[in-house]
Amino acid sequence: MATQYQGLRTVGYQVTDITAAKEWYAKVLGIEPYFDQPFYVGFNVAGYELGLQPRETATVSKTTNVVAYWGVDNVQQTYNELLAHGATPHGEPMDVGEGIIVASVRDPWGNAFGIIYNPHFKL
After folding, report:
1. Domain limits for position 112
2. Is 1 part of any domain?
3. Which of 23, 91, 109, 110: CA 20 to 30 A from 65?
4. 3-state SS class at 114
């Protein structure tokens, strides 16, 4: 049976200030959004979409039982840069085996933002 799934397309983050979030993510990602509307801002991150969705009020607590991990070449460096831009620690860089390194932060709106170096994953 062939799979109907074609791979990850979009990861969405809810934010209370979409203008500030757009500026923050443009700075940390090093790219401008390809789609920029008051109801949604989308960044094309190496063929995957990071989306920002406005929310009028902050969520009391945001779940971290699911974390999207964005591929990077150097987890420690990227982790440090995210913290320098105002993110807060969520999971410090850790080698989870076979050369795979993961870490996560919370963006200024409380969303879990994961980063990963996985030498085994090739597009």
Report:
1. 67-123
2. no
3. 23
4. strand
